[in-house]
Design a protein that fits this description.
Elements lengths: L1 H15 L27 E10 L12 H11 L3 E9 L10 H9 L2 E10 L10 E9 L3 E10 L18 E12 L2 E9 L14 H12 L7 E6 L10 H8 L3 E2 H5 E2 L25 E5 L4 E8 L10 E8 L17 H9 L19 H11 L21 H9 L19 H14 L25 H9 L19 H12 L2
Parallel strand pairs: 1-2, 7-8, 10-12
Antiparallel strand pairs: 1-13, 2-4, 3-4, 5-6, 6-7, 8-11, 9-11, 12-13
C-alpha cells in the first residue's frame, strides 16, 4: 500500500526530518560500521555500501560457490549490500538453495528478498516456491521494506511477450528498505534493469527507459537520505545509454563519477566470462551506486577485483546527513521490541502521546485513536459531512477522523447510532479496519484464508473477520504471538498497533 500513501507521508516526513549540510572530515575509504568510526556531527553517519550482481552464486567460470561470494562481502566490510541475480530455491544452478538465507547466515547480516519471479517449485507442491530477483543484506536493523512493481520484459514462459496485447506487463523486483543507522534512517532502493538496449518490435521505447521512469515515480527521496544501487545493464560512458542515466542524474549523484578510484570495469570480472558467440564480454561499468545530493556525501568509491561472480562488486564510502530521533518517552527504551515502530508513528504524527512524556505501549489502542491515525496517514483531508454518531460531537480531537473514516467505509458504528470512541480495538477488528482502508484505496487482491491455517487458534477468528485477518497475515502485517497464536479477540496494544501501522503503510 506504500504507493497509495507515499505523497502524504512525504509531506509528513519532510517536516519531521532536517538534514545537516555540514561537510564531513573523514578520510576516504577507511571506515565502516565494523570500524566503529563516526563523523563529529550528531546526525551524520558513515556507511560503506556495496552493489553486487552475484550471478546466482556462480563464479566467473559458472561454478556454484556461494562461500566465495560471502567471503568477498565480509572482507569488504560493507554495511549494506544490494544484491542482484539472487536465487531462492530456484533450480539446479544453485542446488535449489535459499542463497539469500545462506548469505545472511554466512555474513551475519539481516536480509530482505525483493523477488522478480515467484513460481511454484518444479520439484513438487511440497517444496517452497522458486524465487529470483534482487535482495539486501544489512548490518543495521531493517525497519521497513517493500517490493515494487516496474515494467518487465519477462524471460519466463507464459508471461507477456512482444506482440501480445498485454505486453510488456509489470513484475515486482524493485526493492526498497529503510535501515536504522544508530538512530538515523537511510532509505535504499535496489534495481536490475533490462539488458536489451533496443525497443521490442512495435513498442515505442526501450523497456529500460520505462523501468527508469517507473523507478523515479516510485522513489521517495525527500523523507530521509536515499541511495539507489544496482545493475543498470548500461554504461554511463556509452552515449546510447543516456536515456538511462540522464533522468536518474536529475535526482541523484553517481558516486563513481564523484570519487571513483582505480579500474572502472565492473563487468566482466575475468576473461572467462563469454558472450553467447564465445567471445570475451566487452569490459564496461554497468553497476552503480547513486546518492541524493545534499543528504549524502560521497567520500570514495572503488571496485573489488574478484571473480567470485561474473560481476565485480562496486563499493562506495558515504556520509549521510540525517536527523537523530530524540525519544520523548520515559516508558519506551531502545530495547523495547516495538521501539522502531513507535519512533515511526511518532515522527509521522500517526499516534500521539498518551500523556506528557509517555507513550503507554502496553495500553490498548482505542477506536478513536486508530481512526485518527489512519486519517492522519491520508493527509487529514477536509471533512464536510457527519456520520451521525451521537457520541462523536463536533469539535472533538477525533471528530473529523471518525466522520472521514466512516464516509470511506473504513469504520462502522457499534449500533444505536454510536461509534464508541473510547472502546478498545481487538486484533481482529484492527485487521478488518486496515483491510477496509486498503480496499478504499484500491486494494484488489483477495484474502487467502489458508494463511490462517498454521495458527493454533485460527478457528476462534470470527466469520466477519476471516477475510481481514487472512489478508493481514498474508501481507505480514500480523505475524502472530508466541505459540503460533493469532489471539484475535485480544485487545491491540498501542505498541502492537504501532508495529501493524508501520508494516501496513510501508508495504
Amino acid at each position: 500500500m506504500r504507493s497509495v500513501f507515499k505523497k502524504a507521508f512525504a509531506l509528513i516526513m519532510t517536516a519531521a526530518v532536517a538534514f545537516s549540510l555540514a561537510a564531513p572530515a573523514a578520510a576516504a575509504g577507511t571506515f565502516s560500521a565494523a570500524d566503529g568510526q563516526r563523523p563529529t556531527a550528531a546526525a551524520d553517519r558513515q556507511l560503506r555500501v556495496m552493489t553486487y550482481n552475484i550471478h546466482f552464486g556462480q563464479n566467473a567460470e559458472n561454478v556454484y560457490d556461494l562461500q566465495a561470494i560471502a567471503d568477498v562481502i565480509t572482507a569488504s566490510k560493507a554495511d549494506v549490500v544490494c544484491l542482484q541475480e539472487v536465487d531462492v530455491n530456484w533450480g539446479t544452478r544453485s542446488n535449489y538453495d535459499n542463497t539469500l538465507s545462506m548469505l545472511a547466515q554466512m555474513t551475519g547480516m539481516s536480509s530482505y528478498n525483493a523477488f522478480i519471479y515467484d513460481k511454484p517449485s518444479s520439484r513438487g507442491a511440497e517444496y517452497p516456491n522458486e524465487r529470483f530477483g534482487v535482495a539486501f543484506l544489512s548490518k543495521y536493523p531493517i525497519i521497513s521494506s517493500a517490493n515494487h512493481e516496474i515494467t518487465r520484459w519477462s524471460t519466463q514462459d507464459g508471461d507477456p511477450q512482444p506482440g501480445d496485447a498485454n505486453f510488456p506487463g509489470t513484475k515486482p523486483g524493485f526493492g526498497e528498505i529503510v535501515v536504522d543507522v544508530d538512530g538515523v534512517k537511510v532509505r535504499f532502493y535496489n534495481t536490475h534493469l533490462d539488458y536489451r538496449a533496443q525497443p521490442p518490435e512495435g513498442y515505442p521505447s526501450t523497456i529500460r527507459l520505462d523501468q527508469v521512469n517507473d523507478m523515479l515515480r516510485i522513489m521517495d527521496i525527500d523523507s530521509c537520505p536515499t541511495i539507489l544501487a544496482g545493475d543498470m545493464n548500461a554504461d554511463a560512458a556509452d552515449p546510447t545509454a543516456a536515456e538511462v542515466f540522464e533522468p536518474v542524474l536529475k535526482k541523484f549523484v553517481d558516486s563513481w563519477a564523484v570519487a571513483g578510484q582505480g579500474s572502472s570495469v565492473s563487468f566482466p570480472s575475468s576473461d572467462a566470462v563469454k558472450e553467447q558467440d564465445g567471445t570475451v564480454s566487452k569490459a564496461r561499468k554497468i553497476d552503480y551506486i547513486f546518492t541524493t545530493p545534499g543528504s549524502v556525501d560521497v567520500i570514495s568509491s572503488h571496485i573489488i577485483d574478484s571473480a567470485a561472480s561474473d560481476h565485480r562488486p562496486v563499493v562506495a564510502d558515504l556520509v549521510v546527513h540525517g536527523s537523530v530521533w530524540e525519544n520523548p518517552y520515559s516508558d519506551v527504551s531502545e530495547s523495547l521490541w516495538s521501539y522502531g515502530a513507535i519512533r515511526y508513528v511518532t515522527e509521522t504524527g500517526l499516534l500521539q502521546n498518551a500523556s506528557t512524556g509517555s507513550f503507554a505501549p502496553a495500553a490498548a489502542i482505542t477506536r478513536a485513536e486508530l481512526a485518527a491515525a489512519l486519517y492522519r496517514s491520508a493527509g487529514s483531508p477536509a471533512v464536510t459531512t457527519s456520520a451521525g454518531f451521537t457520541d462523536v460531537p463536533a469539535g472533538q480531537w477525533y471528530s473529523d477522523a471518525v466522520n472521514w473514516a466512516a464516509s470511506k467505509g473504513i469504520v462502522e458504528g457499534v449500533g444505536s447510532n454510536r461509534f464508541a470512541p473510547d472502546d478498545t480495538v481487538s486484533r481482529e477488528q484492527l485487521a478488518v479496519i486496515l483491510y477496509q482502508y486498503a480496499i478504499a484505496n484500491g486494494e484488489t487482491s483477495k484474502a487467502d484464508t489458508s494463511a490462517l491455517a498454521p495458527y493454533g487458534d485460527s478457528a476462534s477468528v470470527h466469520t466477519w473477520a476471516t477475510d481481514g485477518m487472512a489478508w493481514a497475515v498474508g501481507k505480514g502485517i500480523i505475524t502472530g504471538k508466541p505459540g503460533s497464536l493469532l489471539a484475535p479477540a485480544d485487545s491491540t496494544t498501542r505498541a502492537e498497533a504501532a508495529v501493524m501501522l508501520m508494516r501496513f503503510l510501508s508495504k
